[in-house]
Structure formats: structure tokens, C-alpha cells
DNA sequence: CGTTTGACTTAGACAATGTCCATTGTAGGA
DNA sequence: TCCTACAATGGACATTGTCTAAGTCAAACG
């Protein structure tokens, strides 16, 4: 689990208590927290950590490619530590639950040249929407 | 072009100058304006229109299925009047330009049961990212 | 046509999310 | 241990969106 901390230190990232806490909070599969949620959990471990620091640190982790920004709903950005396996997202339209998914096929290949308008297309982002077992059962 | 206005009136929508202006602003292909941009253009035609009315009207158009909400960037929601032909979006990572695109294939079929976590999946949203001709040339 | 009525509009306060900056603190090297 | 550049802090500010109370108007009715 300190994989992340090791990698960061190896990249010359200056290690501080605050950064360690943020990195610890963002750990695991199917983790998609908002900045505020990250802050709340960080405060539980390190009460004096500030909002600005959480935002800064998240921004840096995104720049370093260690964490992905996800915008599945129109509210807050979410942060996804699963940056090293490419994946897409499945979102419950009712409760907002999010799962990482790995579809087969390559959507990039499905966009004909005539539909590219001269763009250099480099990336695709796919969001599946539906109801999770809980919400569908109700 | 008054297709939209006709349809709305037919549905018992009370027609006001403000609503007409908003509907007129949202007209055309590849139109993806933020609420603020809609407001700015509406004010040009009807100076006393208020922000709240623009938000209300956009929300109603979305509820009626006449306009789609698009969240390609993490900033503001955008409103897409092209609601009657299903499509996806191609976004310039630099300048934010957006084009409507129609990929071949069906991403829904590419999500195996084992990757559905018991969800009832009903919809997919695909966002291609890259550089538009202008930004790539620079 | 004039009245009437309830839906629509308005302005501005408020809320949620995110950014910026000047000041203070500290990790890690010499 | 001391220095210094980099990081953290807190609070002001910005952007986007929501809500409410009061005024206004579209359209149905006579």
C-alpha cells in the first residue's frame, strides 16, 4: 500500500504529514471521493489539515498521474486512485454509487475519420448509467 | 426552427418572451452553451431577463427532453439542443471546443455481465478527448 | 374586449465547490 | 544544527447554481 508513497518519494516529492494522510485516504478499489470527503477523512487523522492543502495535494497527485479526476455527476469532482489500470465507470443514477469497470472493445476504433472533424483524438471516457442492485430492488 | 416552440406550446407550455428567447438562443448544430452563456445571449435580445429565469427555463427544457445536459468539463453544465438524435461528444482538451459525433458500435454490448455488479445498465455516455485542428497546429 | 387567476419572472440572498494569496511552518540537505 | 526552498495555513474571493417572496403577465372566461 505504500507503493504510492514510495513512488512519490522516488520522484522527489517532499513528504509531509499532510500529504501522507491524503495519500492514505485515497487507497483501495472502487474509491471515488470528492475533495470534501477526502478532507473530512484527512481531518479525522490530522485535525489541523486545511482545505487548501487537500485541494493542492489532490491537484498534484493528478498532475503526477497517480490519481484520476472523475466527473460522473454535475456536483463535485471525484478522485480515483486506480490510475494504473485503464478503466471506465458505472454509476447508479439514483444513489450515485460508482464502480470501476473494464469493457471489452476499443471505442477509439469506433470513431470514423469522417466524425473526427480534424481533431487529434487521444482519449476516450465512457460512463455507464443505471441502477445499482439496492436502488433497482426498491 | 420554431419546431421547438410549436412542440412546447402543444404541450401546454405557457409562452413568454423570456422562454421564447431562451429557446431561440439554443438553436443549431454543435451548440453547447453554459447557463451563463445562454443568459448573456438572452440578455442581448431581452435586457431584463434574469438569471433565475434562464436556469428555470433550461431545467424545464431538460425535463421535457428537448435539451440535454452535458458535463464535459468540470466547470459548468452545458446545454445541448440536439436531443433528438442520440450522439456523443468530442472535446478539445485545450480550448474546450465541442463537436457532436456518432460512433459506430454499441458500447453497451461491450460491458460483460461480470462487469455489471448487478446493476441494471440503461445508458452510456462517451466523451472523446483530443486537440482540435487549431490547437494541434499551434 | 376587460377581468381574473395561477403560473411565470425578478432581484437578491444563500449555498456549494473551488482558487488565490500573504504569511507561517518545516523537510531535508550542507 | 542551521538554512532555505518548498509546503501548509486560513481566509478572502470567484464561479456556478438554488431558493424565496413579491410583483407581473399570458391566456381562459365571460
UniProtKB/TrEMBL annotation, chains A, B:
Q: Which residues bind Zn(2+)?
A: 92, 95, 132, 135
Task: Tell me where on the tree of life, at the top rank, the source sits.
Answer: Bacteria
Gene3D superfamilies reported for this sequence: 3.30.1490.190, Winged helix-like DNA-binding domain superfamily/Winged helix DNA-binding domain
Family indicated by similarity? Belongs to the Fur family.
GO terms in the biological process aspect are: negative regulation of DNA-templated transcription; regulation of secondary metabolite biosynthetic process
Query: Lineage of the native species?
Result: Bacteria, Bacillati, Actinomycetota, Actinomycetes, Kitasatosporales
Q: Which GO terms describe its molecular function?
A: DNA-binding transcription factor activity; transcription cis-regulatory region binding; zinc ion binding
The residues that cross the membrane are none
Keywords associated with the record: DNA-binding, Metal-binding, Repressor, Transcription, Transcription regulation, Zinc
Keyword check for Metal-binding: yes
Needed cofactors, names only, are: Zn(2+)
> What name goes with this protein?
Transcriptional repressor
Q: What Pfam family does this protein match (any one)?
A: FUR
Instruction: Give the cofactor note text.
Output: Binds 1 zinc ion per subunit.
